[in-house]
């Protein structure tokens, strides 16, 4: 699918018109697939719709799986989150900054922020039900998303450490709320999380190195 | 600086406001320990999503997402936020636009006008009460001297207040009285006289009397006599003041 160049040609808003022109000429579906994440995001900033669809194709698996996990398997809610994530990607002014890390991490951060907004709004309404109902829903057949290292690394943590991470990362409790739940000063909660994450990282690292060595 | 370093976990968890986050980023560029810690923590943090199990994406999701995004983003072109975000933005702009002092003035004005309004309502209800209880003049007689030696004149009025009726006689230029002499007011009904009290004028010739009319008592005419004293039950002296003709 080719897009006529005048469609997105914006000589006044895009500083290097020649580059822009070239890029637009190349924007067939095939060539989009060859674009780097960064290039794709630039096109999306210029409201290039096919680039946006390409981004969807690349990351929908991750974003949807993530949303499904954070909503504890609720498909409808997961879909709603996905819609809002892509709306934000299309409209946001706070752009992805490649200097700050991989696009995938940025996308996950956006997804987590939106999910947590959802979760917190919901919590206000149905404080109790949420936990029990949803936890039973993830029964669908599933394969590990990326690798088993994370599971291994997590096993090295105490239950307590895992719990803290789950509360903060997946269940959308704020540090302050966790401190209140644990009846501990917020500083203690922070340093426990800090230690847990560092320990996890340590295990991830040694496993990775072990794997590289093994190969 | 130690204080700033404490925000590392808040920053990682995305719990800082936009401003606080910017502030912390500036701190990161100065604090080596924080930035290296952050890097390590982020490694673990960014590995967390892989806990999510791979799920099959519903095929219809793509068109749903695209419709949602392009309808939301283009149908109301400047609208890129959802309603609640919009309201927040508005509120923010509103608050920003008003310096605290302006806000204080507005609050004060509000309080003052509320006070005035309250007082106004109070006054109004008092006034209404007064009007409903207000006295009504049901009868009015103009009075004047019927003797040539005096130019006294005035009026008599029946004032109705609720169920009570009161006769008020107000006269001026009355000739000064001698000794115990008094003017006596008589009411006439079907040829019968009824005493309505006596009055003695002040030095300026001004005299006034009020008399509470009994029950349903009505009268046709009013006359004032000059009496040797204030104790008569029947007119003894001559009539000096009567109703003005015409």
From TrEMBL, chain A:
<dbReference type="InterPro" id="IPR013324">
    <property type="entry name" value="RNA_pol_sigma_r3/r4-like"/>
</dbReference>
<dbReference type="Pfam" id="PF04542">
    <property type="entry name" value="Sigma70_r2"/>
</dbReference>
<dbReference type="InterPro" id="IPR039425">
    <property type="entry name" value="RNA_pol_sigma-70-like"/>
</dbReference>
<dbReference type="GO" id="GO:0016987">
    <property type="term" value="F:sigma factor activity"/>
</dbReference>
<dbReference type="InterPro" id="IPR007627">
    <property type="entry name" value="RNA_pol_sigma70_r2"/>
</dbReference>
<keyword id="KW-0805">Transcription regulation</keyword>
<feature type="domain" description="RNA polymerase sigma-70 region 2">
    <location>
        <begin position="55"/>
        <end position="124"/>
    </location>
</feature>
<protein>
    <submittedName>
        <fullName>RNA polymerase sigma-70 factor (ECF subfamily)</fullName>
    </submittedName>
</protein>
<dbReference type="InterPro" id="IPR013325">
    <property type="entry name" value="RNA_pol_sigma_r2"/>
</dbReference>
<dbReference type="Pfam" id="PF08281">
    <property type="entry name" value="Sigma70_r4_2"/>
</dbReference>
<dbReference type="GO" id="GO:0006352">
    <property type="term" value="P:DNA-templated transcription initiation"/>
</dbReference>
<keyword id="KW-0731">Sigma factor</keyword>
<dbReference type="GO" id="GO:0003677">
    <property type="term" value="F:DNA binding"/>
</dbReference>
<feature type="domain" description="RNA polymerase sigma factor 70 region 4 type 2">
    <location>
        <begin position="151"/>
        <end position="200"/>
    </location>
</feature>
<keyword id="KW-0804">Transcription</keyword>
<dbReference type="InterPro" id="IPR013249">
    <property type="entry name" value="RNA_pol_sigma70_r4_t2"/>
</dbReference>
<dbReference type="InterPro" id="IPR014284">
    <property type="entry name" value="RNA_pol_sigma-70_dom"/>
</dbReference>
<dbReference type="InterPro" id="IPR036388">
    <property type="entry name" value="WH-like_DNA-bd_sf"/>
</dbReference>
<comment type="similarity">
    <text>Belongs to the sigma-70 factor family. ECF subfamily.</text>
</comment>
Automatic annotation (TrEMBL), chain B:
<keyword id="KW-0969">Cilium</keyword>
<keyword id="KW-0472">Membrane</keyword>
<protein>
    <recommendedName>
        <fullName>Anti-sigma-W factor RsiW</fullName>
    </recommendedName>
</protein>
<keyword id="KW-1133">Transmembrane helix</keyword>
<dbReference type="InterPro" id="IPR051474">
    <property type="entry name" value="Anti-sigma-K/W_factor"/>
</dbReference>
<dbReference type="GO" id="GO:0005886">
    <property type="term" value="C:plasma membrane"/>
</dbReference>
<feature type="transmembrane region" description="Helical">
    <location>
        <begin position="98"/>
        <end position="118"/>
    </location>
</feature>
<dbReference type="Pfam" id="PF10099">
    <property type="entry name" value="RskA_C"/>
</dbReference>
<keyword id="KW-0966">Cell projection</keyword>
<feature type="domain" description="Putative zinc-finger">
    <location>
        <begin position="6"/>
        <end position="34"/>
    </location>
</feature>
<comment type="similarity">
    <text>Belongs to the zinc-associated anti-sigma factor (ZAS) superfamily. Anti-sigma-W factor family.</text>
</comment>
<dbReference type="GO" id="GO:0006417">
    <property type="term" value="P:regulation of translation"/>
</dbReference>
<dbReference type="InterPro" id="IPR027383">
    <property type="entry name" value="Znf_put"/>
</dbReference>
<dbReference type="Pfam" id="PF13490">
    <property type="entry name" value="zf-HC2"/>
</dbReference>
<dbReference type="InterPro" id="IPR041916">
    <property type="entry name" value="Anti_sigma_zinc_sf"/>
</dbReference>
<dbReference type="InterPro" id="IPR018764">
    <property type="entry name" value="RskA_C"/>
</dbReference>
<dbReference type="GO" id="GO:0016989">
    <property type="term" value="F:sigma factor antagonist activity"/>
</dbReference>
<keyword id="KW-0812">Transmembrane</keyword>
<keyword id="KW-1003">Cell membrane</keyword>
<feature type="domain" description="Anti-sigma K factor RskA C-terminal">
    <location>
        <begin position="106"/>
        <end position="235"/>
    </location>
</feature>
<keyword id="KW-0282">Flagellum</keyword>
